Amino acid sequence: MRVYNFSSGPSTLPEPVLERAAREMKDANGTGQSVMEMSHRSADFKPIIERTEALLREVMEIPPNYRVLFLQGGASLQFAMIPLNLAAGEAGVPAKGATYVETGVWAKKAAEEGAKYARVAVAASSRDRDYTYIPPAPAPGAGDAFYHITLNNTIVGTKWRELPETGPVPLAADISSCILSEPLEVSRFGVLYAGAQKNLGPAGTTVVIIREDLIGRAPSWTPALLRYDVLAGEGSMYNTPPCYGIYVIGLVLEWLKGLGGVRAIAERNEEKAGLLYAYLENSRCFCSPVEKPFRSLMNIPFTLARGGPEEKKTLEARFVTEAAAEGLVNLAGHRLVGGMRASIYNAMPLEGVRALIRFMEKFEKGLT
Fold first, then answer.
1. Strand-pair category, 328-329 with 4-5
2. What are residue 171's DSSP bridge partners?
3. In the predicted model, what is the mean pLDDT of residues 199-219?
4. Are 173 and 154 in a shared domain?
5. Alpha-carbon distance 15 to 34, whole Å?
6. Is residue 192 located within the same domain as residue 274?
7. Cα distance between residue 118 and residue 121, in whole Å
8. Does residue 245 belong to any structural domain of this protein?
9. What residues have CB less than 8 Å from 91, skipping those under 6 apart?
10. Closest to 100 (Cα-Cα) out of 80, 84, 124
11. What is the DSSP string of 342-356?
12. 224 with 233: CB under 8 angstroms?
């Protein structure tokens, strides 16, 4: 039985993609072999990675002066690679400054990792209200190497509605949980990065989109595998790339293009999120902890609107268990914040959201 998977990542993939990948598991593109078996240097794999990059450039409208890299290490490795490549100093040369805005757990981790290589200033934070809003964006520091934000905050369910104005300072953004969910003006950024396991494909591949003039700034002591210039110079093949993940990303991009691209999926995402938020607004049992102007399209946390802490904890566990029994899985909130969370990425169909709302209505009636 196919369930509705509300996991924050690894998350649900489009059924047509899974079906095609299954058909091609032993024979991809008439080669008589699986992509898992192909040499990344082979003539069989070359058109796969080239097609995937071309599709990503097309659907995201990536300008020609940006490089696309398919890497490993997850978005978390980029917490180190960006400051290492853009701000770290040589022997006798101090590290450069970098501005971070802390809007959640992953934004906080990014700043902490960045501080190992740059002079990090956390210029604004929403920790004072449990990260339930996006704080006003301050100006970058004079001479900063970059300005970092987490565009969508997976755990707490917030998103940036307006990008900070950073002037000549390159804007770097973690877009792991919102990539391809709605149009994004790539030219506003110096670096974009995303783990694939939410909206792009299976876990294990990370996409980095970086402006060409930012490549080649790493200090000489940087390990080769962590240098953007080395990785870009080898076309993401300095070492063996995550071949199968790149192949599945290509299938996801073909699926998305067939639906009408990012603008079309954005309309579907607005409809899905709108239905769930509208229910939460009118429910006497459930509520959203996130301030309205900053609510995510992709990750929707919700909690019980009544009861003490222990009662809530018991009822939330019951909700998650009973929902799973009805084919609505992975609705538990992140372990750091509790509650419930529905991640409704691109591949989550509208009917999945409607099924969740029907269950929530039934659960609510059972408590009255």
1. parallel
2. 147
3. 97
4. yes
5. 19
6. no
7. 9
8. yes
9. 221
10. 124
11. EE--TTS-HHHHHHH
12. no
